[in-house]
Design a protein that fits this description.
β6 and β7 form a beta hairpin. The mean pLDDT is 96. This protein has one domain: Glutaredoxin. By secondary structure, it is an alpha+beta fold. The protein is built from 5 helices and 9 strands; from the N terminus they run βββααβαβαββββα.
């Protein structure tokens, strides 16, 4: 199954950093089913310990409460191992780490989930920079993939989430509080 907007999001079950206090705690698996009943911002990034990735991962973490206030959760994914994720979330920000991250990372080490979400760069085995918004019923409602050198906008992700949650017709540049389109 390949991810397609308006269709059920591809299922996954991946090892994560959730609730880990050390490398021995890294066996906890997260699945898409764990997020039923809430919105999920599920994003892929190329690699741990890189340059653009920590800027957007930490920007999402800084605004994590804005997502949870909207009934959404955030989950990051790359094709790195869960042990690499642990090393990265244990490294201080001043040393190119992401210590203090407020949401878990999952490891798509077998690259099956990146392939299902159509973000796997098969030439080098890493995920492209993809972001997906999945509704509480598990249906994919938004998908975007960008070049590796361009980080994503948290404000735009929140705006799209809020637009999707209206269930209405949202014109270009719509923001919460603005008029929805009506069709007579």
């Amino acid at each position: 199954m390949i991810a397609q907007v308006g269709k059920p999001a591809p299922e996954f079950k991946l090892k994560s950093t959730k609730n880990a206090t050390g490398p021995k705690d890294l066996g906890f698996e997260i699945s898409l089913a764990d997020y039923r009943g809430k919105w999920l911002v599920f994003f892929f990034y190329p690699l741990d310990f890189t340059f653009v990735c920590p800027t957007e991962i930490l920007a999402l973490s800084d605004r994590y409460e804005d997502f949870t206030a909207l009934g959404a959760d955030v989950l990051g994914c790359s094709t790195d191992s869960v042990f690499s994720h642990w090393a990265w979330i244990s490294t201080p920000v001043a040393q190119n780490g992401i210590a203090g991250l407020k949401y878990p990372l999952v490891a798509d080490y077998k690259k099956e989930t990146a392939l299902a979400y159509n973000v796997l760069d098969e030439d080098d085995g890493k995920a492209q920079r993809g972001l997906f918004i999945i509704d509480p019923e598990g249906v994919l409602r938004y998908s975007t993939v960008t070049a590796d050198n361009v980080g994503r906008s948290v404000d735009e992700t929140l705006r799209v989430l809020q637009a999707l949650q209206t269930g209405g017709l949202c014109p270009a540049e719509w923001k919460p509080g603005k008029q929805l389109l009506s069709v007579a």
